Write a sequence for this structure.
């Protein structure tokens, strides 16, 4: 079966699946609700399924596209080419604070959206979390399983490192479920759209975000282990008990607040008096 859509062959290495369902596209654009005067950034515009209707509403849009052929196609777009600022780069290596510095609407944070290639969605989330002070909100089409993980709470089998870090940085709201048939070629999984809104203030007080990330990664790296064992090289059993936590608990039952308490205790031990 041909995987060509509108004259472009979907490239497996870029994880390309092109959205074509008008109903779904309208729902996504309505959820984003783009307005003139905003600094809108689309990651992976592809064949322009979301780009085109957004450009019909606004005068300026920045797009980040790694595929040279698709970038060229957008550059020569018969209707919207003059509205687009095209960044030909991998979003995983892009400095979004520099995108903001060069954005057309001074003083406005970025509004980021896109139908993300599923093979890079999780590392891209972590990359974007580094720029949440520059971002007003994000709307992403992701594998449904990833959206479930982003929104999962303690005690759920879907709850993990991505859940805790996403919820540290953002409010997570699932917006829309999308069936495989909305794409060409159809992916083998269901998709969903999620809205991530960076918190004005983090929901927990953390002395070192780096330590928080390390503790969470270590705790979930071997999720079958108790926290007494998975975190033994950075916090003692006595110190876990002193925080009011059960050393025999597993990572998946700990809340963001619990991880923040552990991270702060680790920071105090590693950097006393700082």
């Amino acid at each position: 079966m041909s995987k060509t859509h509108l004259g472009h062959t979907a490239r497996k290495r870029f994880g390309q699946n092109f959205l074509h369902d008008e109903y779904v596209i309208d729902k996504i654009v309505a959820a984003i609700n783009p307005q003139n005067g905003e600094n809108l950034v689309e990651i992976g515009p592809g064949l322009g399924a979301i780009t085109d209707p957004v450009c019909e509403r606004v005068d300026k849009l920045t797009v980040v596209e790694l595929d040279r052929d698709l970038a060229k196609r957008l550059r020569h777009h018969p209707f919207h080419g003059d509205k687009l600022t095209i960044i030909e780069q991998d979003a995983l290596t892009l400095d979004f604070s520099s995108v903001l510095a060069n954005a057309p609407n001074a003083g406005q944070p970025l509004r980021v959206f896109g139908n993300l290639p599923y093979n890079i969605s999780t590392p891209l989330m972590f990359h974007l979390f580094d720029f949440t002070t520059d971002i007003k909100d994000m709307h992403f089409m992701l594998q449904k399983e990833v959206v479930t993980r982003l929104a999962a709470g303690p005690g759920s089998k879907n709850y993990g490192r991505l859940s805790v870090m996403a919820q540290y940085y953002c409010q997570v709201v699932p917006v829309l479920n999308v069936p495989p048939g909305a794409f060409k070629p159809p992916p083998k999984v269901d998709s969903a759209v999620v809205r991530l809104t960076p918190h004005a203030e983090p929901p927990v007080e953390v002395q070192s975000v780096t330590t928080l990330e390390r503790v969470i990664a270590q705790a979930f790296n071997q999720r079958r282990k108790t926290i007494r064992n998975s975190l033994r090289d950075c916090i003692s059993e006595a110190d876990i008990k002193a925080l009011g936590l059960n050393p025999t608990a597993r990572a998946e039952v700990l809340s963001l607040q619990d991880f923040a308490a552990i991270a702060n205790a680790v920071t105090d031990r590693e950097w006393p008096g700082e």
